[in-house]
Amino acid sequence: MVLPVLVVVVAALIWGLMAACARIECLDAARAGARAAARSETPSEVISAARGAAPRDAHVAVAREGDLVRVRVEAQVPGVARLTVRVDGEAVALAEETVR
Questions:
Q1: How does residue 62 score in pLDDT terms, banded at 50, 70 and 90?
Q2: Given pLDDT bands bounded at 50, 70 and 90, which one contains residue 56?
Q3: Which residues pair with 92 in a beta bridge?
Q4: What is the domain extent for residue 45?
Q5: Is 15 exposed, middle or buried, given 0-12, 13-18 or 19+ CB atoms closer than 10 A?
Q6: Whole-model pTM?
């Protein structure tokens, strides 16, 4: 009786750890993309920089809001049945050409 419960608890802990790691990867990828965008790199280079650090099959969105560049990275963490969850990370940077 205890062994099945223990297996379920360990599986839930591993899934939670995978979700936390994917969230951290999304944040790191968004930061990498925001740094690239702040250096006035091309949009394809910004997306490439973000995808290089992002989890597999992540979605990258880049937006310019005045002097700020916003990069958002979203990924889906696989799970059993309804335990699939989306994680995201967002970073904002000041464009270098606006700094005097």
A1: very high
A2: confident
A3: 70
A4: 2-98
A5: middle
A6: 0.83
Rounded CA-CA distance 3/76 in Å is 30
Question: Positive or negative, the Cα torsion across 52, 84, 71, 59?
Answer: positive
| Position with higher pLDDT, 81 vs 5 | 5
Residue (of 93, 96, 94, 61) closest to 75 by Cα position: 61
Angle (deg, nearest 10), helices 2-38 and 43-53: 160
The CA–CA distances, whole Å, from 24 to 18, 55, 83 equal 10, 10, 19
CA 8 vs. chain centroid, Å, equals: 27
**DSSP letters for 23-64:** HHHHHHHHHHHHHHHHTT--HHHHHHHHHHHSPTT-EEEEEE
Instruction: Give yes or no for a contact between 22 and 39, defined as CB atoms under 8 angstroms apart.
Output: no
Domain count of the fold of the chain: 1
